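job 3f2a | input accepted
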Amino acid sequence: MASVFAHGQLRLYLLALLEDGPRHGYELITALSDRFGGTYRPSAGTVYPRLARLEEEGLVARTDEGRKTTYALTPAGRAELEDRRDDLADLEAGIAETVRDRAVQLRDDVRDAMRGLRADLASAAQQARAHAVPAPPAPADEARTASHVNRMEADALVRRFADELRADLRRADAGPGVAPLTVDTVRTVLDQALRAVRGTLPR
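job 3f2a | predicted structure (203 res):
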């Protein structure tokens, strides 16, 4: 937590997130995660005690709606937010820098993971070839049929992957939005996957 928010900063940012209207605790957690491009997501055990503290201080009002609880700024909370606009601007700048740093680290981690995966795939393929028992040559028609079946299965897997990813991207675009980190991750993963798969194809 200390590496993301310094003392008192999460308290201030929760007030800022409530400025546009009441929110449930889960919505606040999601808003924080979205602000950090998915690289950080606070736990309920981190957010709810601070909301309770803000309520005790009279800066936030809680409304229970059945099994859900909504939090809203009080006039005192809005006054506190106005008094600390400069602090909030500094905090936003710090968050932007944190997001950039975490995005770079995540991209590096993805690249390292994909390099490791590619090496594992190459090793597994080499071992499989070394221990494979040569099959008797199949007639040309049977070999062509088997190749066609395998190609159709691979095509179906690619289409399913693309359809599922497109659906996820559309949902994100209609909601909190698609972050540049997502685009970089897709690019890195697909580039590495393409090279790994091409390495299994005959030349």
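job 3f2a | The first strand starts at residue 23 and ends at 24.
job 3f2a | closed
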